[in-house]
Write a structure and sequence with these properties.
The chain is of the alpha+beta class and 77 residues long. 30% of the residues lie in helices and 32% in strands. It has a single domain, classed as Translation Initiation Factor IF3 (2-Layer Sandwich), CATH 3.30.110.40. It has a four-stranded mixed β-sheet with strand order 1-2-4-3, with helices on one face. The longest helix is centred in the first third of the chain and has 13 residues, at 15-27.
């Protein structure tokens, strides 16, 4: 199993497709693997959705907090 981090730039994805794409990427992670999400705004609503649908399965770390680019490392526990 690869523990290579995945980088996902959702700035180029249509708004209606962003969360489904992110969830597919998250669900493909193996334990200990990380997804770096790149967005043009704070993805706080995504964090709440992940907490509701996948409680206690991830860690969320901001690597950049705007104003133009937000980078969040989402690690699978």
């Amino acid at each position: 199993m690869s523990l290579q981090p995945i980088e996902l730039d959702v700035r180029v994805i249509a708004p209606r497709d962003k969360h489904p794409t992110i969830f597919r990427a998250f669900e493909s992670l193996t334990k200990g693997q990380a997804l770096t999400l790149i967005n043009d705004h704070d993805p706080k609503p995504l964090r709440y959705q992940l907490m509701a649908e996948h409680p206690n399965t991830f860690d969320w770390t901001y690597e950049a907090e705007g104003p133009e680019v937000w980078r969040v490392k989402i690690s699978r526990r």
